[in-house]
Amino acid sequence: MSKNVNIDWSNLGFSYIKTDFRYVSRWKDGSWDEGQLVEDNQLTISEASTALHYGQQCFEGLKAYRTKDGKIQLFRPDQNSKRINNSCRRILMPEIPEEKFIDACIKVVKANEHYVPPYGTGATLYIRPFVIGVGDNIGVKTAPEFIFCVFCIPVGPYFKGGLAPVNFIVSEYDRAAPYGTGGAKVGGNYAASLYPHEVAAKKGFADCIYLDPATHTKIEEVGAANFFGITKDNKFITPQSPSILPSITKYSLLYIAKEYLGMETEEGDVLIDNLDRFTEAGACGTAAVITPIGGIEYKGNLHVFHSETEVGPITKKLYDTLYGIQFGDVKAPEGWIVEVK
Ligand SMILES: Cc1ncc(COP(=O)(O)O)c(C=O)c1O
Fold first, then answer.
1. What positions are modified (N6-(pyridoxal phosphate)lysine) (predicted)?
2. Number of folded domains in the chain?
3. Are residues 295 and 234 in the same domain?
């Protein structure tokens, strides 16, 4: 580590901290510029930017991990690159070449290397790439210019005292329409989730579960995470729908369940009226890796899976394997890890 920073690694939460450098690249007249690292964390943009009025913006979230031998590694950044380009296409923004995206992430991590938490703390460096439509414009159309930016912040482990289950409540609101933007990581989806989250939190739940917007019979998302359940016969099952954000953690768990744990896996419907088929359930995403689901409240009844206080054995194995891969303690499948040199 090149420089000492005054951070209490074991007490980090998920809060913004201004790190030293961020990457900024601008698109104009049909192409992206070279991009550069800058110290200033303020962006000056036109008051008429489409990002401000029409929600023309998208983002990503991934992490850099410190391994036991002090190396720094990224987990599947090519998948975040594919997903940001999918989001860009959906809202008519220019794509970012994969090499430019991964290179920007690596540059930012290297420039802020002293903010990558030490191995063993469970803390990581969270990387936030985003694209916004900017420039002078007022009609509802795509922007004349764009900014691609990547910044990073050190964040604490989601679970400080070990994996603890939490309860969720089914929301009466939808986060996305059937052929809307649910499958893209665009800001509007998150603006739409703020109020339902607040309603769930006020009732004492960690977050809400969104059902499929067309029939309200199937589980789609768990807050800003994907759902999985483990059946009585040891199958890993996760919902499939175009309005779910394709979670990189979820696809990694599907692979781990099959190839590392020898389980059967399935992407299919998860009916809210048939939760009895599951002995364990969880929410998965970059932030928490896995959040065990204690219970789900639906129509006034709390359905408890394994336990409201203890993580189930399969969920624990899935978590340990993925966490081990991310921190370099378990051998990763080919191509999943990119070392920051
Ligand atoms: C709505 C939503 N679902 C699921 C996820 C989990 O995705 P990932 O595993 O790629 O972090 C996220 C986080 O990015 C999200 O915002």
1. 185
2. 2
3. yes
Q: Are residues 140 and 215 in the same domain?
A: no
CATH for 125: 3.30.470.10
In whole angstroms, give the CA distance from residue 223 to residue 207: 6
For the stretch 71-120, pLDDT in tens is 999 999 999 999 999 999 999 999 999 999 999 999 999 999 999 999 99
Could you count the other beta carbons within 10 Å of the beta carbon of residue 245?
23
CA–centroid distance, 226 to ligand 1, in Å, is 7
Whether residues 21 and 151 fall in one domain: yes
| Strand ranges inside the chain, DSSP E | 22-28, 31-32, 36-38, 57-59, 62-66, 72-75, 124-134, 145-155, 166-170, 207-211, 219-222, 225-231, 235-238, 264-267, 278-285, 289-298, 301-304, 337-339
Verify whether residue 82 is a known catalytic residue: no
Atom of ligand 1 nearest to the CA of 286: 11
Q: What confidence score (pLDDT) does residue 170 get?
A: 98
> Using a 6 Å CB cutoff, which residues line ligand 1?
61, 221, 224-226, 245, 247-250, 285-286
82 within some domain: yes
Tell me how far apart the alpha carbons of residues 283 and 306 are, in angstroms, rounded to a whole number.
14
Q: Is residue 148 part of a domain?
A: yes
Q: Domain limits at 194?
A: 166-326
Per-residue pLDDT reduced to its tens digit, 30-73: 999 999 999 999 999 999 999 999 999 999 999 999 999 999 99
* CATH number for 230: 3.20.10.10
Question: What is the reported pTM?
Answer: 0.97
